[in-house]
C-alpha cells in the first residue's frame, strides 16, 4: 500500500509518520471514555456510581479485542519484517476466529451478570448497573472487532483509518448520548445504546475495509493453516491477564475507597482515571506505534536501531508527561468539576500532586511493555505486572489502618508505579542485550 509506513529504512521518521495519527486516535479514545461518564454524571450521583463500578467489567470486554489485536499485530509485524506475507495472512485469520470465540464467551456471561455485579460491589446500584451493562454484554462484537481490526491495520503501517474512525465514533457517541439519555429519557441505558451504536459503526467499516480488498493483508480463508494460535496467544493472553489483574486491583481500590469515603471515593477515583486517560493519551499513542515498528525491526534483526528508537521515544514520552501533569496540577479543579465531583478539594490536590510523579513513570512502563510485545516477550510482562499488583495491594492493605480518606490508595499507586517502571526498564535492557548477543553468535557461526 502506497500510503503505509516503511518501518525499516528510517525508524525515527517512521515513528512520527505512524504515531502522529495515533496521537489523535488516543486523544479521542480518551474523550470517548470521557463522554458516557460526563453525561451520566450530570444526571445524579447514583447513576455515576453505577457506571463507575462497572468499569472493570467493560475493561475486560474491550480487552478481548485489544489483546487479540496486539497479539495478531505482533505476529503480523514480525512476519512482514521477515518478508513472509503468507504468514501475516494466516495470522489475521486465526485472530478473527479467536475473536468470534471470545464474543460467544462474553454473551454467555449474561446469565451470571447479577453475581458478577455483586462481586464488583454494585449491590447498592444493581438495577442501574444492569441497565447500563446488559446491552453491552449482548453486543460484545462491536467492541471486540473494532479494537481488533484497528490493531491489525496498524501492523500494516496504516494508522490513518483507525484514527479517522475513532474520531467519527467519538463524535457520534457525543451526539447520541444526550439524545438517548435526556431527550428519549432512557437514562443509563441510553448511554449504553449510544456506545454500542457508535462502536458498531467503527467495527462495520473496518470489516468492510478488509472485505473490499483495500487492506494489504486480505481476509481469505484459503490462507488459513492451523498452527500459530499458540504464537498469537503468547502475546494476547498475557495482555488479557494483565488487564484482568488491573481490574482486580481496581476492585480492591474501590472496596477500600467505599470503606473510607463512601460512594464519593469511587466517584473521585473514576473521575481521576478519566482525566488521566486524557493526560496519558500520548503514552498510548507512542506505545501502540512501537508494537508494529518494534515487530518489524525485531523480525529484520535490527537490534541497534531498536535500542536507539527506544531511548528516543522514552525521552519524548517522559518530557511530554511531565509538562502535561504540571499543567493539570494548576487546572485540576476545572477537570474534576466536569464530573460534578465537589466537596473534596484536599483529595483533588493530592491526586494532582501525585500525578506529577506517577504519570511520567507510567510512561516508562507503557513504552517498555509494548516494546516487549513487539518482540514477543509478553509473558515476562505478565510476571512483572502480577508481582506489581500484589505489591500495590500489600502496600494499601498495610497503610489502610494508618492513612485514611483514600490516602493509602494514592500512596500504594505511587510506590507501585515507580517500582514497576524501573523493573520494566531493566528487563527490556536485558532482552535487547540478549538478542544482540544471539545475532552476533549466529553471524559468527
TrEMBL record:
It is a multi-pass membrane protein. The chain crosses the membrane at residues 14-35, 47-72, 92-120, 132-149, 161-184, 191-212, 232-253, 312-331, 337-361, 382-403, 409-428. The keyword Ion transport applies. GO terms for biological process: monoatomic ion transport. Keywords: Antiport, Cell membrane, Ion transport, Membrane, Transmembrane, Transmembrane helix, Transport. One of its GO terms (cellular component) is plasma membrane. This is Multidrug-efflux transporter. It comes from Methanobrevibacter millerae.
